[in-house]
């Protein structure tokens, strides 16, 4: 169903190449490469070339003006001692490890409620989906900045109950929380993937369980959850990869500086400051590769762990 | 659910799905909304408890949905209010209609806001054309042609979907700045012409795989070559996938902040997101009304696309899991 399942099945499937296939190969090669030409050029010039280039730059000192100067592992040893970078990692990990599970839990809950043949499903689905389309925009980040401001909407509502709320965004202890909330607010797209997955569960399982007298909770734990586990896994992998790269919301809400006192300094924000604020391109490249390694490690852990909890029907 | 067509789409809601035809007749129209076989127990299918359950669900959904949408509604209402009320009035009641925020906001920056929308429109149109042409070509090759290295390239293509863009952004910036493309729209459009949004290649591959091969073969017997089969047979049949690509490219490009932030530093070239950002920075807390007004103007195109293209959006997410 997804790029991820396709990728994992590719590594399993190794059929012998038949003569017929070999003949077919010869026939189509030229046409195929013509059709692939734009993609191939893009792969070399826009993706792989820059990747290798940034790997090289990670070992240099480069400010765009003078040519890059080889400094070996300097950038990486600097990263070891960079307290702001460590803080940005903590902020990003908190965001990912709290925001992603929370968002997926809400998405699953609402999908389960919606799946039970409820009247008005298309309407509800639209309402829940809309925020995930708008959530990445600067406009919504601006709205968030006002809502969670000292005299913002949240505190106006709290004031009606006689509660004096803090300045959610100006207080370092709650600023990250309000950005995590913005992430949870965009649960609509994983919800739609869950809804599609729920409809693929054959009804006969539930019918059989009912004959055996299973309770609603038992049906959820024994049928819905295992059958849905590939979709949960898929959502988890995608959301984690995406959340590590989150940038716009923290940038706008904090006014571009990751404040107050670096509490919303995401790793990507710090990378932007280093690369495009101070033009420390070597250091920024080293950071980018570090980010790639982190994301790769998280994805690998996810895949390994999936063997223990993801259930494949086929 | 490997193919786009077999996915549950909104209009199929009342019927079966691809995998288990017939066994899932759903009771969306039934009284109390809980008439689905899965729900029923014995003879008490439409019991009072089922109706109470449905009511509780509606209550939960209305409350959750209401809380989610409220900030957006409030922003719309606030943009029509005098500035000072934004910090005092959490309700949605409007005493009078204040259009001043819109006229103020429209001309608050060095260019009228329409100028930035035009810039965004240029980037959006270029990106859509680029994605449609380059991704459909690559997808045709992956889905229909046999060639050496196909498996390897296909695997690489799937991997690039998951590649964080930060890894390539620094050298890309260096490359584009050396060609002199900073403060032009090229760095935002040219990558799309080169099918770097591999999401869409994958989406289209999935779709083409669902088109019967007999159609290609019939065309081939009639003497058509690959360009002809692609243009005359495959492309007309993959319009739904092209529509999904168009809509997603529109929304993502319209909202794209990071790319524009890096490449467009001259106010003349600002797209809507960077213009809004400049607005926030210049107006700190003094004119939230006009800031809200322009935020709403900037969200309006996305909202309209959402209204009219929802069917394709939902199909697209369900197939590939894109945001």
From TrEMBL, chain A:
Any one Pfam family match given in the protein's UniProt record, by short name: BPD_transp_1
UniProt-listed InterPro entries: ABC_transporter_permease (IPR051393), MetI-like (IPR000515), MetI-like_sf (IPR035906)
Keyword Ubl conjugation appears in the UniProt entry: no
Residue ranges, annotated region (Disordered): 1-23
GO cellular component terms, A-Z: plasma membrane
GO BP annotation list: transmembrane transport
Entry keywords, A to Z: Cell membrane, Membrane, Transmembrane, Transmembrane helix, Transport
Annotated CDD domains: TM_PBP2
PROSITE patterns per the UniProt record, alphabetical: ABC_TM1
Source superkingdom: Bacteria
Skewed-composition ranges (Polar residues): 1-10
Transmembrane segments: 32-59, 93-114, 126-144, 176-199, 220-241, 247-272, 284-305
Keyword ATP-binding assigned: no
Bilayer disposition of the protein: Multi-pass membrane protein
Primary location recorded for the protein, binned into one broad class: membrane
Subcellular location: Cell membrane
Assigned protein family: Belongs to the binding-protein-dependent transport system permease family.
Protein name: ABC transporter permease protein
UniProtKB/TrEMBL annotation, chain B:
Region spans: Disordered: 1-40
GO CC field: plasma membrane
GO biological process, any: transmembrane transport
Stretches assigned to the ABC transmembrane type-1 domain: 117-309
Biased composition (Basic and acidic residues): 10-19
Entry annotated with the keyword Nucleus: no
Protein topology in the membrane: Multi-pass membrane protein
Protein name (database record): ABC transporter permease protein
């Amino acid at each position: 169903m997804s790029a991820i399942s396709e990728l994992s099945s590719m590594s399993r499937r190794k059929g012998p190449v038949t003569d017929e296939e070999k003949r077919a190969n010869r026939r189509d090669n030229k046409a195929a490469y013509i059709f692939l030409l734009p993609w191939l050029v893009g792969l070399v010039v826009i993706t792989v070339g820059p990747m290798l280039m940034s790997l090289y730059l990670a070992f240099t000192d480069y400010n765009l003006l003078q040519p890059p100067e080889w400094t070996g592992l300097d950038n990486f040893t600097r990263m070891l001692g960079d307290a702001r970078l460590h803080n940005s990692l903590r902020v990003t990990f908190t965001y990912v490890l709290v925001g992603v599970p929370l968002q997926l839990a809400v998405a699953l809950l609402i999908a389960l409620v919606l799946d039970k043949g409820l009247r008005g499903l298309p309407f509800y689905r639209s309402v829940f989906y809309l925020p995930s389309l708008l959530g990445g925009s600067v406009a919504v980040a601006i709205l968030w900045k006002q809502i969670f401001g000292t005299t913002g909407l949240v505190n106006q509502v709290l004031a009606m109950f006689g509660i004096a709320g803090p300045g959610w965004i100006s207080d370092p202890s709650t600023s990250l929380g309000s950005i995590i909330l913005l992430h949870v607010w965009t649960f609509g797209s994983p919800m739609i993937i869950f809804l599609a997955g729920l409809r693929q569960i054959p009804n006969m399982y539930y019918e059989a369980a009912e004959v055996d007298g299973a309770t609603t909770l038992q049906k959820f734990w024994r049928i819905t959850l295992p059958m849905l586990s590939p979709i949960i896994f898929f959502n988890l992998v995608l959301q984690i990869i995406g959340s590590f790269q989150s940038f716009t919301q923290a940038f706008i809400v904090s006014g571009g500086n990751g404040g107050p006192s670096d509490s919303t300094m995401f790793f990507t924000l710090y990378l932007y400051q280093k690369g495009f604020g101070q033009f420390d391109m070597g250091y920024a490249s080293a950071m980018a590769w570090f980010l790639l390694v982190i994301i790769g490690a998280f994805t690998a852990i996810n895949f390994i762990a999936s063997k223990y909890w993801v259930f494949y029907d086929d | 659910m490997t193919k786009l067509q077999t996915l549950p789409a909104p209009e199929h809601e009342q019927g079966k799905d691809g995998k288990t035809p017939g066994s899932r007749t759903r009771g969306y129209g039934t009284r109390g909304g809980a008439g689905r076989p899965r729900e029923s127990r014995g003879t008490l299918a439409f019991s009072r408890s089922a109706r109470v359950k449905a009511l509780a669900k509606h209550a939960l959904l209305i409350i959750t949905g209401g809380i989610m949408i409220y900030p957006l509604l409030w922003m719309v209402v606030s943009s029509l209010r005098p500035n000072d009320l934004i910090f005092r009035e959490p309700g949605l009641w409007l005493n009078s209609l204040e259009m001043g925020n819109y006229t103020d906001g429209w001309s608050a920056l060095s260019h009228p806001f329409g100028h930035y929308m035009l810039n965004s429109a240029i980037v959006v149109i270029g990106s859509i054309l680029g994605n449609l042409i380059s991704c459909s070509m690559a997808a045709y090759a992956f889905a229909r042609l046999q060639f050496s290295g196909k498996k390897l390239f296909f695997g690489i293509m799937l991997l690039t979907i998951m590649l964080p863009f930060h890894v390539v952004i620094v050298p890309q910036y260096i490359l584009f700045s050396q060609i002199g493309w900073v403060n032009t729209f090229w760095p935002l459009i040219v990558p799309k012409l080169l099918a770097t949004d591999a999401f869409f290649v994958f989406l289209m591959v999935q779709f083409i795989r669902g088109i019967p091969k007999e159609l290609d073969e019939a065309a081939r017997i009639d003497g058509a070559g690959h360009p002809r089969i692609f243009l005359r047979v495959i492309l007309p049949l993959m319009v739904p996938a092209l529509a999904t690509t168009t809509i997603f490219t529109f929304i993502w490009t319209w909202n794209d902040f990071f790319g524009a932030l890096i490449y467009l530093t001259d106010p003349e070239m600002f797209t809507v997101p960077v213009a809004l950002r400049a607005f926030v920075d210049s107006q700190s807390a003094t004119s939230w009304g006009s800031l809200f007004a322009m935020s709403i103007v900037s969200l309006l195109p996305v909202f309209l696309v959402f209204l009219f293209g929802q069917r394709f959006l939902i199909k697209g997410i369900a197939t590939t899991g894109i945001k």
